[in-house]
Write a structure and sequence with these properties.
The chain is of the alpha+beta class. 15% of the residues lie in helices and 29% in strands. It contains four helices and eight strands, in the order ααβββββααβββ. The relative contact order is 0.24. The protein binds a DNA duplex through strand 3, strand 4 and helix 4.
DNA sequence: TGCCTGATGTTCT
DNA sequence: GAACATCAGGCAC
């Protein structure tokens, strides 16, 4: 694990989530390079009823309780994958869900992977996983290594970040741990 | 443009 | 056996 990245992610999810906005994900697949910018995140930790780690460590959530900087991929609703960046130190079940990204490079191949084009290419957690060919094979992947790298950028101006309640969940809806870049067209709809 | 619904697998009770 | 951190397509307005 890259030390700078590990250090950056060594804090609770609610702290890291807004700092991840504007950072870059680089994905290599089939010899092609895909680059996207993170524009929307949600924080989850073990004190949070909506979190997979809330009920303690299970085989499924093992990754969330592990070392920060790894990818936690889960399968949901019978047909979709979603990906999280594990944060906080080893032993704490804390992660940041990537909800939306903005395509920077390889857009055409993402459209092929999604078999879909247009604005709604990556504006949802399951959509971006499909666009980046992320599935459970990448569960536990170290984000400082290929074929999927997280590249931290300077944190964007907090004034350009909107913080709201989370969406698409049934528990702890009132916890305001959703963050997105204000006005970015790739953010999912509220 | 916006609500409603079906598809469908993994996990935990 | 139910819940689920979802999406896409259909149909009404």
């Amino acid at each position: 694990m890259n030390k700078t990245l590990a250090n950056f992610l060594s804090k609770p999810a609610s702290i890291v989530a807004p700092l991840l906005l504007g950072s870059i994900l680089e994905r290599e697949v089939d010899g092609k390079l895909l680059r996207v910018k993170i524009v929307e995140t949600e924080a989850y930790d073990q004190t949070d009823a909506a979190s997979h780690s809330y009920k303690g460590k299970t085989p499924r959530t093992d990754i969330m309780f592990g070392e920060q900087g790894h990818l936690y991929v889960y399968f949901t609703y019978g047909m979709h994958y979603c990906c999280n960046v594990v944060t906080d130190v080893d032993g704490i079940g804390s992660a940041v869900l990537i909800r939306a990204v903005e395509p920077l490079e390889g857009t055409k191949y993402m459209q092929e992977l999604r078999n879909h084009s247009g604005r709604d290419l990556t504006n949802g957690p399951a959509k971006l996983c499909q666009a980046l060919a992320i599935d459970k094979q990448l569960n536990g992947h170290d984000l400082s290594t290929s074929p999927l790298k997280l590249i931290i950028q300077e944190p964007i101006n907090p004034r350009k970040i909107t913080q709201t309640k989370r969406i698409g969940i049934s528990q702890a809806k009132d916890v305001p741990w959703r963050y997105y870049i204000t006005g970015n067209e790739y953010v999912s709809r509220p």
